Amino acid sequence: MREIIAAPFPGLDPHTGERHHGTLTSEAHVVLGNLKLLLESAGSSLDRLVQVHALIYDSIEYDVLNRVYRQYVAHGPPARTVWTAQIEAGFKIALDAIAAA
Q1: Which of 56, 58, 65, 97 has the fewest CB atoms within 10 Å, counting from its CB?
Q2: To which H or E segment does residue 48 belong?
Q3: According to DSSP H, which parts of the chain are helical?
Q4: Contact 11/30 with Cβ under 8 angstroms?
Q5: CA-based end-to-end distance of the chain
Q6: d(Cα 101, Cα 23) in Å, to the nearest integer?
Q7: CA atoms within 13 A on the CB side of 9
Q8: CA–CA dist 87, 78 (Å, integer)
Q9: What confidence tens digit (pLDDT) does each residue in 76-92 have?
Q10: Greatest CA separation found in the chain?
Q11: Residue 85's Cα: distance from chain center in Å?
């Protein structure tokens, strides 16, 4: 099986490269939207995710992340690990993912 690996990336505007800082909800929408675009441009999709690692800035936001995540990965989410960590440049979320090609 071929895999597509998306390296950790925070909320960056895909057109300008500008950093998108906001609430965890708004940043998660940007990050997951970017992941969707990346996978689709590589011939895959969010439905083909195999594994996701999420870093969030505070464990209190875990339920917030889940609500946004399920909007993008609604059918049988893959194995996922969530850690709390201080993320580069003050972002509230960063993801890395593996998807089937």
Answers
A1: 58
A2: none
A3: 24-41, 62-72
A4: yes
A5: 8
A6: 31
A7: 22
A8: 23
A9: 778 889 999 998 888 99
A10: 37
A11: 15
